[in-house]
Specification:
Elements lengths: L13 E5 L2 H13 L4 E5 L14 H16 L11 H26 L4 E5 L4 H12 L3 E7 L5 E5 L13 H5 L25 E4 L6 H4 L8 H15 L5 E4 L9 H4 L6 E3 L5 H7 L2 E4 L4 H7 L3 E4 L12 E2 L3 H9 L8 H15 L1 E2 L8 H15 L3 H4 L3 H5 L2
Parallel strand pairs: 1-2, 1-3, 3-4, 6-7, 6-9, 7-8, 9-10, 10-11
Antiparallel strand pairs: 4-5, 5-12
Length: 393
Amino acid sequence: MNFHVSDLVHHATLVLFAASKDQRRYFTLLAEKTNLGAKVVWYKSLKLPALLIKYPLHKLWRQAELLVVRKRNSRKGKHYPNWFWPLFQVSSFIQAVWLYALYVRWLKIEKAQFVGVWNGKKFRQAVLLEAIQALGKSPIFFETGPLPGVSAIDPHGVNAFSSVPRDAIFYQNRVTHERILVPYCTSERPNGLPQKYIFVPFQVVEDSNIYLHSPWIRNMRQLFALCKNLADKLGSDYHFVFKPHPSCDEDYSDLKQKQSEQLIFAEDISTPVLVEHADAVMTVNSTVGIEGLMAAKKVLVLGDALFAIEGISYPVKDELQLQELLSGLHDLSVNEPAVNSFIDYLKNDYAIPGNAMKSPDKTHWRAAERRLQLLLDGKTSEALVTLSSERSR
């Protein structure tokens, strides 16, 4: 798979921008397995910038700011001195300007109206989106999730930026295809778990869900401190069980030393079991929140998320609201029909079957081609609600 600047003169209906080897592998397969006339462009093949163009400097500076927030919140970033970060931001801004010029030249040569982007929130892709917008082209976003074993192809974005409707009435009025919720415990309660507890899954601190979609929780240490403060205020009946994210390299040994009867780390217990036995799941915006909904649990959402919907979950804007919700936790209810319809929509209408990065098969390619063809034809609404009927054929 070798891509060169000379490839850019071939005009495609859909061009797929690959910013990593995994993305290049998936997008190449997508182009081969579908009849969309798609073409893959490897980011390293873009060498020449556009000249004499207008730059959206404030937007590019914002991308440099977000990169600083992301890197500064990482394990390595915490060891850098304060004076390093202004220099890093200026350097990142210069890089953003350069990338923008590369992208503008490429997009002016490339006649395709639609540009496929993986996730769209990382630095390179975020700068590309600024160029796409400036030139009046249309992005299409790719991502794994939001349920286990599926993927997303969305014209608006992924996760909190997705096209998923945010109105509980939409789901209450929708005809569902199957019963998905499993509200009853099927596993034995592990030793060491309190009889009643709130499960708090930690998230990757460098993930965009934290640095971009978490308005008031900066990192997991702040989340732990919040729970400690709430435990002190609400009394001994409230227990919080934490589990670090397996893909995060952050060292939380300092927090583990602060464990108590009310603040417990449960690293050796699987997430599904912790969800199953919890009275509620409290998350910034982890997909564990969706697992909580599938288990018919009360789910409190502290950040921006596609499932932060009044009537589906309990969105939380600040600590005071959270304290009020937790103090009346036993009085909170789960609207199971609406929640089931929400999960059913994600599974049977919104999601593309198969994990794009791990297990794309014929079903995945057929669904992806169907979704993409409708988007290329301008049939956005139809593209996001017709997969269930397509699968039943």
